[in-house]
Amino acid sequence: MINDQSSNPTIASLAYQKWMKDLLEMEGWIEKQRVIQFKWDHRRKTKILRAKCSSSSIRQMAIADIREVAFIDQTCFHPLWQQSQEALEHAYAQSVYSTVFEINKSICGFQISTYDKGKAHLARLAVLPVFQKQHIGEQLVLNMLKHVADRGIKDISVNTQQDNYNSIGLYNKLHFKKTGDSFPIYIYG
Predict the structure, then answer these.
(1) What number of other Cβ atoms are within 10 A of residue 179's Cβ?
(2) Within 35-135, where are the H helices?
């Protein structure tokens, strides 16, 4: 992945195999971060919380929403993890279930999920900082869990950075359990 948001782009690589890790380190790449994996424990019951604002709602994402979704993504993520509008358009096109959370007809959060061979994956989740701590991310995830569980899918995963404590707390609260798998992210230079 290359993040070219500035005149000094960051070049990053995810190392899934030991040989790749060894090669990157030999070439001077530095481990910057680790991605950890979670799986949902479908045997645990999860309560759906009601929105705190009466004018809020979750609805399916539309292609016309991508510009606002890209703004949220750019606002919420560190440059290494930001996705361009074009990348989010591709993610939306490949997703099976994508939703936005609106308050007063303005998008303040979103999620993008995929399915593959009977498994679901929460690929992207973000809520504007001013709306965080209002259970919006939680409601987006619960809505996605209900959507996929209603279709008989119980194998649901999500990845996050090892130091993204807000996300880890949310996933723990919603009965996602660490799988023990993690992968290093390397940057060049």
Answers:
(1) 12
(2) 66-76, 85-94
**How many other C-beta atoms lie within 10 A of the C-beta of residue 137?**
23
Query: pLDDT digits over 9-22, tens only?
Result: 778 888 888 899 89
CA 179 to chain centre: 17
Q: Nearest-5° angle of CA 164, CA 12, CA 77?
A: 35
Tokens of 69: 């979704």
Give the pTM. Answer: 0.86
**Amino acid at residue number 176:** F
Residue count of the chain, please give it.
189
Helices 85-94 and 66-76 sit at what angle, rounded to 10 degrees? 120
CATH of 36-181, one of 3.40.350.10, 1.10.10.10, 3.40.630.30, 1.10.390.10: 3.40.630.30
**Residue 10 token pair:** 């960051």
